[in-house]
Design a protein that fits this description.
Shape: globular
Number of strands: 0
Mean pLDDT: 84
Radius of gyration: 20 Å
Number of helices: 17
Order of helices and strands: HHHHHHHHHHHHHHHHH
Low-confidence stretches: none
Largest sheet: none
Strand content: under 5%
Length: about 375
């Protein structure tokens, strides 16, 4: 019975995260539409990208709704139904940029409900079976395998058609995810019906959770320079869409290897010690982008995809292990939202600083901010 339950937990987690990854299929087409049809600057594209991910910063509210109403699998079914409706609009209608951004933001918010629901299942079941690291490894192997399709497939669709075709290709995926959602049996009594004030007091009086939240924000924060590098690949290196997509696919394979390695060692590593190592490693890898050529670009993408995924899963496992009992979806979503807020802050600060200091100094500043979280590591139990 336990093995059957775990099978459907893994299957559902894998399917939902695969869907989350394959939803990147229109990404390249959207980028080229903004860059080459609307002629948007890197800064403007970075700001628009931040706006569409707003819902991922308020995931605790989503988590609270999921912890206190319906069931987690019911929320996944609701999200899948809305997914199909939204991609039909995006795939069949030509709309002004303002409406496109709004609909992308709404679609992103709907995906956040699905993500928080399955993460709540991961925390509840993972802590029960001491498998949070293993479940998350499978989740991210799935999202990376989806990336194999989005790298080449997204480039092919962008080359032959446009982003609207890519959205329509998502419909069969949403239908298939319903299968493991149906067969996963959520145990009764996993939802809470406490008052909002009591639950908020419980969360925000948890000193350890607050320290971890601040650490996650500072750990993940560094002014972003990814979009300018993408511009360099297109404009300075003269890379074609298919080569960029192929490189993304190769990097994804390396990320899969990193995920599988974490699956193997997740229950044996000392996470606190590895957090120290990862801070210094992150600063060094960031500084390496000061020397960015067509050759090093390929080397960095491959090597850092492997290392980055192992470290990323370690941090996510750390967060899941410290989720609050009975409020798993809410507390894990709180930590994830701080992680996402840090990403948005990184993107916006990168967009603001790029025209002021230039790319090289932006990279240096990004490396220096890696050390902001160091004092907090010793306070984490």
């Amino acid at each position: 019975m336990k093995d059957k339950k775990l099978f459907w937990i893994f299957a559902l987690s894998s399917a939902v995260y695969f869907t989350q990854g394959i939803e990147g299929l229109p990404g390249q087409g959207l980028f080229y539409y903004l860059k080459e049809t609307l002629h948007f600057s890197p800064e403007k594209i970075m700001i628009l990208g931040s706006l569409t991910t707003f819902a991922w910063m308020v995931k605790p509210f989503i988590g609270y709704a999921i912890d206190h109403s319906f069931s987690k699998k019911c929320w996944i079914f609701i999200s899948l139904g809305l997914d199909i409706l939204f991609v039909l609009f995006l795939g069949l209608m030509q709309m002004p940029i303002i409406f496109l951004v709004i609909l992308l933001a709404v679609t992103s918010a709907n995906a956040a409900f699905r993500d928080v629901a399955v993460d709540g299942i991961m925390c509840v079941e993972g802590k029960k079976y001491q498998a949070t690291g293993k479940i998350q490894s499978i989740q991210w192997v799935s999202i990376l395998v989806a990336g194999l399709f989005t790298g080449i497939g997204g480039a092919f669709i962008a080359e032959k058609w446009d982003y609207k075709t890519a959205f329509l290709c998502l419909i069969p995926i949403y239908l298939l995810v319903g299968l493991p959602t149906y067969f996963y049996k959520e145990e009764p009594g996993e939802r809470r019906y406490g008052s909002l004030s009591a639950d908020l007091k419980r969360l925000f009086s948890d000193k350890k959770l607050l320290i971890i939240g601040l650490f996650i924000f500072l750990y993940k924060y560094s002014p972003s320079f990814g979009t300018p590098l993408f511009f360099m690949q297109r404009d300075a290196f003269k890379w074609g869409k298919m080569w960029i997509g192929t490189l993304g696919t190769i990097s994804t394979v390396c990320g899969v290897v990193g995920s599988l390695l974490y699956y193997k060692f997740s229950q044996r590593i000392n996470i606190k010690k590895w957090l120290y190592f990862s801070v210094f490693l992150g600063a060094l890898t960031t500084l390496s982008y000061l020397y960015y050529t067509p050759v090093t670009a390929v080397i960095y993408d491959i090597a850092y995809s492997f290392l980055g995924m192992f470290i990323f899963l370690m941090v996510m496992d750390f967060m899941a292990r410290h989720s609050v009992k009975g409020l798993e979806a809410t507390s894990f979503a709180l930590l994830c939202s701080l992680n996402n807020l840090s990403g948005v802050a990184s993107n916006l600060s990168g967009a603001f600083l790029l025209p002021l200091v230039g790319l090289k100094w932006l990279i240096v500043l990004s490396a220096l901010t890696s050390f902001l979280c160091l004092p907090l590591i010793r306070r984490i139990e």
